[in-house]
Amino acid sequence: MGRIVAVTNLKGGIGKTTTVVNVGAGLALKGARVLLVDVDAQGNLALALGVKPRRTLYEALIDGARAADCVMSARPNLDLLAADESLLSAQPTLSRRPDWSRVLDQALQPLKRHYDFIFVDCGGSMTVLNVNALMAATDVLVPTTVEHLSIKGIEKLFKQVVSLKSGATSIRVIVPTMFDPRLKQSTALLEQLQATYGALIAPPIRVNVRLSESSAAGQTIYEYDRRSRGALDYAQLVERLSALWSFR
Amino acid sequence: MGRIVAVTNLKGGIGKTTTVVNVGAGLALKGARVLLVDVDAQGNLALALGVKPRRTLYEALIDGARAADCVMSARPNLDLLAADESLLSAQPTLSRRPDWSRVLDQALQPLKRHYDFIFVDCGGSMTVLNVNALMAATDVLVPTTVEHLSIKGIEKLFKQVVSLKSGATSIRVIVPTMFDPRLKQSTALLEQLQATYGALIAPPIRVNVRLSESSAAGQTIYEYDRRSRGALDYAQLVERLSALWSFR
Ligand SMILES: Nc1ncnc2c1ncn2[C@@H]1O[C@H](COP(=O)(O)OP(=O)(O)OP(=O)(O)O)[C@@H](O)[C@H]1O
Ligand SMILES: Nc1ncnc2c1ncn2[C@@H]1O[C@H](COP(=O)(O)OP(=O)(O)OP(=O)(O)O)[C@@H](O)[C@H]1O
Ligand SMILES: [Mg+2]
Ligand SMILES: [Mg+2]
């Protein structure tokens, strides 16, 4: 019940939002009750799901609204607590509070019993809200492209998680994304990742333009093109995570 | 003299670091005195240039060291004020200062007269330091991939710049990156960008795996593969920017 999964990597543009949407939607299709929370002021979760939220996380964190009142239904079994650019001005305000790194955790606690999974979509850099997401998380899922700079980003994230949560055991899975088996650099780097992190490495999500098209269309990959490589790869990841988190 | 150019876009992974390295290095090869400043705690500028900095921006902003003492020479005419993960812990500390959005500007002022250009590499999200970069900037350069979510990110960035700098005139150029003319979605979106932003849109940087390889190798694209598409496209961008900023 109420597992809070932070989906994060210091590196930008490596598939965090795409993973939150398609893992969350995949679990919801299996009957799990899922909440997606966006802590990135770009507010890409709402765009990628094709919905227009009336209320956002800003109201729950800054204006004192109940988080439950800011949640909207995005799909059956799939709720969304969205973000927008108002969150940009929240960061300096939040960091002046003595409990600045626990604000999100406090807002999400009352929601935990209504959901099987709460996924938090983090932005690129380590903002005040990304620290909040890590503090609230019971589990951390790390997407990464199979490239030099992204892999370096993982090492730094581990250090960060260790210093925030006195240990890195909450990092449960590393998901290689946008994997292109035709590039010899990619195949070599994937083997390096598997050698370094062993069983933490999930099977890669292959590069697939249908994933980019689906987010532009505001649909999950299952709605946009059920038979695409992207849909097959994310469905396989959902199965692996269901087993990891003992869901059905 | 001393133009401060923030290279930023709320969207992650769209070529900010690659643009800072190859525009900075291109201008340095033309004889400009260039400083690159990294405000992203990933510290990817140093990695992409293949150098190991002894001191970082953290010391100049938090420990009170003179910024000039934290600068290292990366190439002829090309200096670097690097970042590392210590910058992660700086954000909450900085935001408690009353002048929190001007800290970088104050640190860079004494350096302005030694350089023709100072490029600031921003991280993905709108962190305290990204706000600092925008406040210090005389000019803003916005890289963007030719994709739906990145283009949406530009609209939000404009709003942000307008609210921080009472107007968006400092946004001088938008650089389409990773452009793949074979994808029909890309060509259509590029035309949409040109229709919306007109002369602000520079000719696109085409997708070119040599750019990814060069950053993994710690080299500029001119050092790694002078005849590649990436080198030609960035050299052309450097020419356009030299004309825009009346340099030689
Ligand atoms: N496996 C894939 N194959 C092809 N394109 C993909 C894949 N996964 C994601 N994309 C596309 O790559 C771009 C970046 O993905 P996404 O926005 O999910 O990354 P992000 O890590 O959330 O970025 P940010 O750092 O800005 O939050 C998007 O246009 C997305 O549609
Ligand atoms: N034109 C291009 N063609 C192919 N690959 C590219 C191109 N430009 C950049 N890349 C690669 O894409 C990845 C992302 O680029 P880069 O790190 O410069 O983006 P960024 O916007 O700085 O990311 P972040 O948000 O993490 O700071 C890198 O591996 C880089 O080498
Ligand atoms: Mg995202
Ligand atoms: Mg970067």
Structure description:
The structure is a homodimer of 248-residue chains. With 248 residues, the first copy, chain A, is α/β, with parallel strands linked by helices. In chain A, 46% of the residues lie in helices and 15% in strands. Chain A is built from 12 helices and 7 strands. Chain A has helices at 16-29, 44-49, 57-61, 67-70, 86-95, 103-108, 128-136, 148-165, 184-197, 209-216, 221-224, 229-244; strands at 3-7, 34-38, 72-75, 78-81, 117-121, 139-145, 171-177. A 7-stranded mixed β-sheet of chain A has the order 3-4-2-5-1-6-7, sandwiched between helices. In chain A, α1 crosses α12. Chain A is globular, with a radius of gyration of 17 Å. The model of chain A has no long low-confidence stretch (mean pLDDT 93). One adenosine-5'-triphosphate sits between chains B (12-18, 40, 44, 123-124, 177-178, 205, 207-209, 211-212, 215, 230) and A (11-13, 124, 147, 149).
Summarize the structure.
The structure is a homodimer of 248-residue chains. With 248 residues, chain A is of the alpha/beta class. Chain A contains twelve helices and seven strands.
Structural class of chain A: alpha/beta
- Which geometry of chain A do the CA atoms define? globular
Radius of gyration of chain A: 17 Å
Oligomer: homodimer
